[in-house]
Amino acid sequence: MKFKWLFLSIVVFPVLLFSSFDVKAVEKEGMPYSVQAVLPENQLNSSSTYFDIKVKPGQQQNLTLKVINNSTKPLKIKITPKTARTSSQGHIDYSGNKQNQLTTALPYSVEKLLSKPQLVTLDKQQTKQVSFTMKIPKNRFQGVLLGGFTIEEVKPNESESVQDGIQIKNKYAYNIGLKIRQDKTTPPDFKFAKAELLKWNDRFAIGGHLINTTASIVSDYRLSGRIIYQKKNKVVHRLEERSFSMAPNSTFMFPVNLRESELPAGKYKYEIQIQQGKKTWQLATTFTITGKDKRAIGSQLPLENGGNWMLYIFGTIIIVLLAVSFFIGWLYWRRRKK
């Protein structure tokens, strides 16, 4: 009898342990609302679905969005003005993700030119026009100010407490672009600010930081490069040519995943080439990797990528428990047979 209970407890324990890790699939639902830009008189391109306006110093005007509730239930919508940035994939990001950096040379942020975010309540099947006040500074600026409006559904008092009792419920959002300009344009220019060892997608990586130093939009430029281990003058990685775009006065952090064994401690040179038509930029920066840097990154990684042993310790414990369960079960079977 003792064997029976010991057998059941050891076999059932791992089963319960595994069953506690419940992965739930989240169903993607259709957007219950839609948004349109109400184009103003100073719109430069009347066929656009976003704001593309020319302004004068000191000008003040309203920018209006039409928000439509297509559902049969009331909705709350949050509309937030944001400055465009550049994502690590090399795309212009209108969502305002602050992990993607802007430069101090940015003339004005969109957030400072427009009035505060608004929370809009819509009854079922209702349409509302929502206006934001835009105030252009008296000092002239060159180039383009780029940003937009992020529109998200929100619901009060759900799972987590947030400021003013509002939590973003729907991960999917509308982004209506906003391009503001005056008379003078500026040609793009670049600075290769730095490169560094970092963790990316649970692997070792080299992150290059490319800066668009002007208030200009970079669209579909070409980027290629190589990383050189200077001690042996050895190319440890070639960056294949890729297309990228950048927001004005923003930083493009482009990571390159590498194996730990490809990155001995020492000094490196990162050379890149940017092309657009007949124009070419040749840029370079140097960086150093130390043993301490590698250990710091490695301690954050899964074992196969140079890191964390905890998952494998846990897995080993489970395997041992299953083996013990099998052995005790075999002993119990033999005892009953005798």
From TrEMBL:
Pfam families xref list: WxLIP_HBD, WxLIP_PGBD
InterPro entries: WxLIP_HBD, WxLIP_PGBD
Residue stretches making up the WxL Interacting Protein host binding domain: 164-295
Residue span(s) of domain WxL Interacting Protein peptidoglycan binding: 33-153
Keywords: Membrane, Transmembrane, Transmembrane helix
Transmembrane region(s): 309-333
Descriptive protein name: Uncharacterized protein
Organism: Listeria grayi DSM 20601
Organism phylogeny: Bacteria, Bacillati, Bacillota, Bacilli, Bacillales
